[in-house]
Amino acid sequence: MSPAVSDFVIPVAKIAAVILYPMVMVVVMIWLERRVVALIQGRLGPNRVGFQGILQPVADAVKLFFKEDIIPRQADKLLFNLAPILVMFSSLLAFCFVPLGEPLRIGSYTLTLWIAESPVGLLIVLGLSSISVFGVIFGGWASNSKYPLMGALRSVVQVLSYEIPTGLTVLSVVFFARSMDMVEIVRRQEAAHIWYGFMLPVSFVVFWISAVAETNRAPFDLPEAESELVAGYHTEYSGMKFAYFYMAEYTHMVLASSLVVILFFGGWLPPFPGVKFLAFLHAVPGFVWYLIKIMFFLYLYVWIRATFPRYRFDSLIKLVWKWLIPLSLINLLAVVAVRYLL
Amino acid sequence: MAFKDIELNMGPQHPSTHGVLRLKLTVDNEVVLKVEPVIGYLHRGMEKLWENLTYTQIVPLTDRLDYLAALSNNLAFALTVEKLAGIEVPKRGRYIRIVLAELQRLASHLAWAGFMANDIGAMSVLLYGFEAREDILDVFEEYIGARLTVHGIRIGGVPRDLDEALVSRIRGVLSGIPRRLKDIRALLDENRIWKQRTVGIGLISAAEALDFGLTGPALRASGVNWDLRKSIPYSSYDEMDFDVPLGSRGDVYDRYLVRMAEIEQSIRIVNQALDKLPPGEFMAKVPRVLKIAPGQVFQTIEAPKGVLGFTIKSNGTDKPERVKMKSPSFINLQSLEHMCRGNLFSDVVGILGSMDIVLGEIDK
Amino acid sequence: MSDPQPKHPFILTRADHFITWAQKNSLWPFGSGLACCAIEMIATAAARFDIARFGMELFRASPRQADLFIVAGTVTNKMAPIIRRLWEQMPDPKWAVAMGNCAVCGGPFPTYAVLQGVDKIIPVDVYIAGCPPTPQGLLHGLMTLQAKVARSRPTKEILNPDARRTR
Amino acid sequence: MLDVPADRPALREVHEALTGRFPDSVLAGSFEKGELAETIRAEDLLPVLRFLRSEHGFNCLDDLIVLDNVRLPEAPAKRFSVLYQLYRFPGDVRVRLVVDVGEDEPLDSVVPIYRSADWAEREAFDMFGLRFRGHPDLRRVYLPDDFDGYPLRKDFPLEGKGDGL
């Protein structure tokens, strides 16, 4: 492999893949959501555009691209334009650290299925995903109108207070895996022949609830509550800027699902490693397992959205400060105790 | 710098104001201090128009008042004109009217369940409620040809007879509704988030409710046993036996339970009416041009939203001198301020949904 | 482009076809209902008649993200300036549908308080008769609107914006 | 004197009580189509209503109706007549109080007694131009505040004056 190829072409291809991977997942996710919510509600959902409506998100994106871009007169121009970029940029950057599978050996060159592997990969991903809050705040505040402002205020309090249980539960996993590197965590789960989701059930449940809350989804979608705040923080956005907000929400969902899968469900590991007669499952490449697990969690997102009513703001905050944070603290102490006493 | 109160406009165009109602809210950081409903955005000048139309021409316009319960408006207006003109509706006509009015109450309550749940976030219940309602609209479409503005009750009786096919179809629809109701109840009744959003919100006691002039399910949720079908029976409702569901605390959750129980009662009434359907005429002899001697009358019925009444003054010609409509939602909406004060902003949406108001009826 | 009035350059018509295909298939209606027709509009979006098949089920509550304004119900004089302001807040390639006799021509209310037809204040693309029009009628109206969108030439407007709108 | 038929004892009893308690203020009574209506002088409106509400349990004001009698064959001295439909809950007893009012003669507001009359009186002002003394916030309820004229008066054209916008 000539250095030109290995040092330039492959990294560029990988970067393109990292950008394309969430976009494709977003397209699939938008279609999946509209179809699944429709089927839950007893109707058909988009099925006129392309085969069974698969091109519907493409049509939406192209239409939004050709929409007029309105900036309200009193809006703060800089922050108004910066908000969607921040929201989109932070989630795309986080995908660089998310490992998709074991490194592949092609001839003499090992192709690593991630862009960057760093010993503190998990910390970076968590940090980046909290940058998107800035985007929401700027968007809500800069539109200079009441409903987006209320949406932004709600979003700030919600996302910040749900970061604490996320952090604590991630800490409990890091204690077990003794490393912050996501690839290492998956390898540890492979070595331990058990997924952390079964060893730390409480952490998994708390992490999943706060993941749903952090992406402003389903019962916690107060910042963009359709029936109260008109359209929440992105009321004033139109055209491509709104498309960024719309796509960023789905990208965050994919990011949160992949985090849950890596931390608690052993990334690309086949489901029953120990069982002999299920050995044929190993033939399926790791990346496929990874995708199957993510699709399950994305389906869970949509399922929750279609069934649960919306939390009220104070009960949302009461839930996190009275239940999730104490629970994750106790869980962390239990994990530490078990780790060192055993 | 104290966070001064925001004046927020849940303006005439808002996803959860059920039409063109505008709420001027004074909000202190999510806590509602003052609510001032502003109405009139759908005022079409009905009463002025009625003074220029004959009695039979007014009936289809009454569909457009409470457009979720068109047949109840027709029934109220027809009963008032019959009382004024002294027309006696044959027994079969009265029974068919009960069937139609109670089917319309079912449709109105199912639509309400969908709208209220959608405001509080449970989107799928809107679709389940509307699906159940579609079956009832199919019955109306087969009976008289229209889905929403049905114009199915005329002065003197009902335009068409209920033949065997239609009766069996109605029974089929009625047997399908409890299954859908079970889905809605399973999703909402014991749901923790739903109860958090509705129990203890928008409280109004029995005395306050009577003082505000509340009527209908909103009043019965506070425990006041006033159902006009029982207290002042009309159109032979006294031959039907059904019980009146009552709430206890008078909050949003009780209004939800009362209306859900009323759906079951309405099914019971329609089945009874179909069982005891007497043979004979279903339309009284009404002259083509109905001239009514001068007089004045006030007649009310129990519409899905509350006590709906008409005052008609006639002057001997075929056009009424004055028609005044007593709208239940118009009076129920006045108590919104009392219920919303002190609650959070997102509760105003829940309380408004539980009041089940329709702007066509408020604004006339 | 070289000559100001390009006849039918191959690239442009392909672009038109692609853009209108996208606009046609993702007309997001503006979730505003005024009177009885709004209930029939919601019934059209509900399970049986399911407007979502045409990609229209995202009823956007904010005018900024909607591109189809279905005026469903009676436009009174008190509501007219608000309807006009909502129309102006919608981003540009936007279409308007007057649903029901009241929106088309004032319907059964020739009174002092009702605006006799919404086309007095906003340019209407498709008129749907009926009081209220049945969901099938509304769907038919929306499909004629889709056909109309497919005929429009968005690239001509982008290239010379001062040219008359080819709506 | 009005003779209420024997089959409606409650109405007869209310009629006797009223004429007994307010002999000079009850100008005329009428019993027609099963409904009792009492015409009352405008000054005694509030005392009569308080009496009916406290002693006779008429705790619900069903409706407040305004009639414009200018086009009647025998045009009465006072143009408008305001009707108060009272109802006693529980039970089925209804009474209608009729008060005749001149064109720009203010009337006492009944909001202190029945809170549901608040918007009803605002509607009467909006549609007929009747003024109510003591009403907390007498503004137009339906039409925009700058609307000139009172639509439900008989002399107001159906299509309205001038262009709608």
Which sequence of SSEs, written as H and E, runs from N to C of chain C?
A: HHEHEHEHH
For the biggest sheet of chain C, the summary is: 3 strands, parallel
Helix content of chain A: 55-70%
Strand fraction of chain C: 5-15%
How far apart lie the N and C ends of chain A? 49 Å
Main sheet attributes: strand count, strand direction, barrel closure of chain A: 2 strands, antiparallel
CATH topology of chain C: Rossmann fold
Number of strands of chain A: 2
Determine the number of helices of chain C (DSSP H or I, runs of at least 4 residues): 6
Shape of chain A: globular
The string of secondary-structure elements of chain A, in order, is HHHEEHHHHHHHH
- The average pLDDT value of chain A, as a whole number, equals 87
SS field, number of helical segments of chain A: 11
Keywords:
heterotetramer, B: 364 residues, alpha+beta, Cytochrome-c3 Hydrogenase, chain B, 3-stranded antiparallel beta sheet, 15 helices, globular, C: 167 residues, mainly alpha, Rossmann fold, 6 helices, 3 strands
Question: What would you say this structure looks like, in words?
Answer:
The complex is a heterotetramer of chains A (342), B (364), C (167) and D (165). With 342 residues, chain A is mainly α. Chain A has one domain (3-341). Chain A has eleven helices and two strands. The mean pLDDT of chain A is 87. In chain B, 62% of the residues are buried. In chain B, a hairpin with a 5-residue loop joins strand 5 and strand 6. Chain B has a single domain (50-332), classed as Cytochrome-c3 Hydrogenase, chain B (Orthogonal Bundle), CATH 1.10.645. In chain B, the strands form two sheets. In chain B, strands 1-2-3 form a three-stranded antiparallel beta sheet. A three-stranded antiparallel beta sheet of chain B has the order 4-5-6. Chain B is α+β, with helices and mostly antiparallel strands and 364 residues long. Chain C has a single domain, classed as Rossmann fold. Chain C has a three-stranded parallel beta sheet. In chain C, helix 4 links the parallel strand 2 (95-99) and strand 3 (126-128). The longest helix of chain C is centred in the C-terminal third of the chain and has 17 residues, at 135-151. The mean pLDDT of chain C is 86. Chain D is an alpha/beta fold. Chain D contains three helices and seven strands; from the N terminus they run αββαββββαβ. The radius of gyration of chain D is 17 Å and the shape is globular. The termini of chain D are far apart. The mean pLDDT of chain D is 86. Chain B binds chain D through residues 39-40, 43, 45, 47-49, 52, 83-84, 86, 210-213, 224-226, 231-232, 295-298, 300, 307, 309, 311, 313, 315, 321-322, 324, 326, 330-331, 333-334, 363-364, and chain D through 32-33, 35, 37, 59-63, 65-68, 72, 83, 85, 89-92, 94, 96, 114-116, 118-120, 127, 140-144, 151-152, 156, 158.
